[in-house]
Hints:
Elements: E1 2-5, H1 11-23, H2 33-41, E2 46-53, E3 59-67, E4 81-87, H3 96-110, E5 115-121, H4 125-133, E6 137-141, E7 145-151
Parallel strand pairs: 4-5
Antiparallel strand pairs: 1-2, 2-3, 3-4, 5-7, 6-7
Amino acid sequence: MKVREAVLTDAAEMSAFLQELAAAGKRSLPSDEDYARTNYIAHADNIRCSVVEDTDGCLLGLQVLKRASEGNAYGVTPGWGTIGTHVRPRAAGRGVGRALFGATLEAAKAAGLEKIDATIGSDNLEGLGYYEAMGFRDYKTSEKHVSKCLLVNG
């Protein structure tokens, strides 16, 4: 597996595996190419969007790290990082998320972030377990979401 920064031409393949996640009932947000491009690859608040590809160049997952801005959708403290991770269903359990997180943590440190928020659907047991394994801890819950925080240098 190879981790690299996402580029605009990745949008089509990102969209394809986001649609696979939606079909499997693991995604409710949009999955089209424009969404992948504007919300993951080229978002104004991006610090880094990473992808993992296999030896054939097929994308297995993505992870985006953004700086939370005022009025963000999850009520994250402005200036914190926010993270989102998506792994192609057939690549689950192969270390894709762990590989992505190494690059993301380096980017968070380089950007001077103190904390990173991961807000996950309360019914997404895989996502909750993943972020817990990466060192995130619960700090806020609602009926629909669990928000976890990681101290970047903690």
